[in-house]
Design brief:
By secondary structure, the protein is an alpha+beta fold. About 30% of the residues lie in helices and about 25% in strands.
């Protein structure tokens, strides 16, 4: 999604664009996610308390965060950096940076609609529901800083008010919070629309094309050697999600990005109706209603870069949602899915010029906010590439921040 968004905004500014995708555009992590556009929930994954929770969940495959024991040796350098960023100062720094980056994310999607980009976009807000009063209070306190960035404040709801909004929830829910300004989108409709708009503007989409090597000369990328032949351009943007680190090594750049697996189940023609996206506070799972279907999803699995669909994790997602509903969530058909979110060790995207290069950029590492931040990222990268600067300080997202000599 990030690569398509960058391509869309570059083409909107008149640039000739070619998108190179190892598969089909929008068919990897951008396919089966919940599609939330939720700037109020802009927060880095490494957070105070995550270390103790992850150690507790390590031996249980059905928790919100699961680290596969067999993957720990391979992931250890990344995990050490991740755990170091779980301190309160690092969390506050990352949260503020993401809040600032997300500030115009919803208006960017409004602009998409005005530009005639046709996708399934909904503006019903986001409802957070809870079965535990202490957890609801904790989450309320976490949402408070959003008001400092101009976001619409969360609205506290009683049990009766929550059940009036969403009658399909069970009486186990004791209350909730409404974020009235949030949107959600069906991601596959967005990726198709962006790809088509790039093509309409004369751009190229090279699907199922592998990048085998990168030719670098004097700090400039000269060409890409691909399975479809040599490709030359004036500027190059690396936006390959969880696979970005391997491609970055081809130009000698260390990019500490790994895969955070997420799972979802899409139910067609559901027998239970929902009116807006739901976030289930204690289990950290979610639900998104679409035209003719509903999708449930959640969990974070760290097991390296692989596309294995673990049925234990799928079952965990089902249980995490089922406990909040009055009836079983069933429909005419179901599709189970797994996707690889690109995760940086500090929880922040990587946006900007790759150190030591004058025409090679990176835009990845958005974790669970790739859809939400896609259009903001696309617009910022287009301005940076074509104009040399942006109106937002990108220092927190600098590709140079991974240097061991860097000090905040």
């Amino acid at each position: 999604m990030i690569g398509l968004a960058v391509g869309y905004h570059l083409s909107k500014q008149g640039a000739a664009v070619q998108v190179i995708d190892a598969g089909d555009p929008g068919m990897a992590c951008s396919l089966g996610n919940l599609g939330w556009l939720c700037p109020s929930l802009s927060e880095p994954v490494p957070a105070p308390g995550v270390v103790s929770m992850s150690l507790r969940w390590l031996l249980h495959g059905d928790g919100p965060l699961y680290i596969r024991p067999s993957a720990v040796p391979q992931l250890l350098p990344w995990l050490v950096q991740f755990w170091r960023h779980c301190s309160p100062p690092d969390y506050a720094y990352g949260r503020d940076a993401l809040m600032a980056l997300s500030r115009s994310s919803l208006s960017a999607f409004d602009t998409l609609a005005q530009d005639g980009v046709d996708c399934e976009l909904h503006r019903q807000g986001l409802l957070l529901v809870f079965a535990d009063r202490q957890e609801m209070r904790r989450r309320w306190e976490e949402l408070a800083p959003a008001a400092d960035f101009g976001y619409v404040a969360a609205q506290a709801l009683t049990q009766a008010e929550v059940l009036d909004l969403e009658p399909a929830l069970s009486s186990r829910v004791i209350g909730g919070m409404m974020l009235p300004g949030e949107y959600h989108v069906r991601a596959d409709t967005l990726s198709r629309a962006l790809a088509q708009r790039i093509i309409d503007r004369g751009g190229l989409i090279s699907a199922r094309t592998q990048v085998a090597d990168v030719e670098v000369q004097g700090g400039s990328v000269r060409s890409l050697m691909t399975s479809s032949g040599q490709i030359q351009a004036d500027a190059y943007v690396l936006a390959a999600g969880a696979w970005s680190a391997a491609l970055a090594r081809k130009v000698g750049y260390h990019l500490p990005v790994t895969a955070g697996k997420g799972y979802s189940v899409t139910i067609d023609a559901p027998r239970v109706r929902f009116h807006r996206p739901l976030y289930f506070g204690e289990t950290r799972a979610g639900l998104s209603p679409y035209v003719g279907s509903v999708r449930i999803g959640g969990t974070m699995e760290l097991s390296g870069i692989n596309s294995r669909l673990d049925l234990t994790r799928v079952a965990a997602v089902r249980r995490a949602v089922r406990s909040y509903l009055g009836d079983d969530l069933e429909g005419e058909a179901e599709a189970e899915w797994v996707g690889l979110r690109p995760m940086t060790a500090d929880g922040l995207p990587v946006l900007g010029l790759v150190p030591g290069h004058d025409n090679f950029y990176v835009a990845t590492g958005h974790a669970m906010m790739g859809i939400s931040l896609s259009q903001v990222t696309g617009a910022l990268m287009a301005r940076l590439i074509l104009g040399g600067s942006t109106d937002l300080d990108l220092t927190p997202f600098s590709p140079a921040r991974f240097s061991p000599r860097r000090a905040r």
